[in-house]
Amino acid sequence: MKKLKRSARLVEMTQYLLFRPHTLIPLTTFADRYHSAKSSISEDLAIIKEVFEEEGLGELTTLAGAAGGVKFIPKVSKANSLRIVEQLCRQLEQPERALPGGYLYMSDIMGQPMILNEVGKMFASVFAASDIDVVMTVETKGIPLAYATATYLNLPVVIVRRDNKVTEGSAVSINYVSGSNKRIQTMSLSRRALKEESRVLIIDDFMRVGGTIHGMMDLLQEFKATVKGVGVFVESGEVEEHLIDDYVSLAKLSTVDPKTKQITVEPGNYFKHNAFVQEG
To answer: Which residues does the UniProt record annotate as the domain Phosphoribosyltransferase (predicted)?
Structure first.
């Protein structure tokens, strides 16, 4: 790359960091890339760090020493997260979203890249320090959320299937009890998809009782894997008890009246966590 003016270098460095979250980048990488001294690169990074933290974009951490470098960790401020979630709650309360059985129609929201981008960033923010190897979800509606989250954690995605496909090779399958209708269902995961003893973050779009997530946890035991966190976009507040206790929800569906089409959605337990950057 040709030598850039400092203003142009700052823009390019910022973009480079934003597209490589949770990646340790040696200072020599930037020095060689921009044909600049390490001291100049360090000054540039100090400016970027200040802006990231003041604007609530994330943290820029530095590791000293020969094997050191700089790492960008995406974070979302509590104020920005609350603003986004409250907007989503108002969208989810639209009467036409009410479905039989106390469910909500959310497919259109799951198809909007801007919303998925923000939701993925929020999940990545709260699980940033959880030491995760892979993000996992079950087909199909949770897939966009899992990829959005994995993008900001810089991790691969593993998808649990409802049935085994020939193209997946040999697989581990289990039966589980669906929490909502008590039906016995099956889920399957290719043996090649997940290494044994992996540390896993489970992401799902909707949790009523938690039977599907509990099933994924049982499946992960077959791989000797550890569940490091569970994130759900919307949880149901109409059930007395969930099958899982430790999870993070962005929104909580409190009531759905199928007759009046009245829906009440409020912010979830995400805001009880303290993994937020400080507002600038």
So the answer is: 112-254
Strands 226-236 and 199-207, sheet pairing = parallel
- The answer to whether the beta carbons of residues 12 and 56 sit under 8 Å apart is no
Q: Are 34 and 5 in contact (CB under 8 A)?
A: no
Helix (H) or strand (E) holding 91: helix 78-92
Cis peptide before 140 (omega within 30 of 0): yes
| Cβ proximity of 55 and 18 under 8 Å | no
3-state DSSP assignment of residue 58: strand
Distance in angstroms (rounded) separating the CA atoms of residues 137 and 111:
16
Contact 115, 205 (CB under 8 A): no
CA distance 202 to 212: 11
Instruction: Tell me the pLDDT tens digit for each residue of 66-119.
Output: 767 999 999 998 889 999 999 999 999 999 998 887 778 999 999 999 999 999
The model's pTM = 0.91
d(CA 12, CA 260): 53
Domains in the chain, please, with CATH? 6-74 (1.10.10.10), 78-272 (3.40.50.2020)
Measure the CA–CA gap between 209 and 92, rounded to whole angstroms: 19
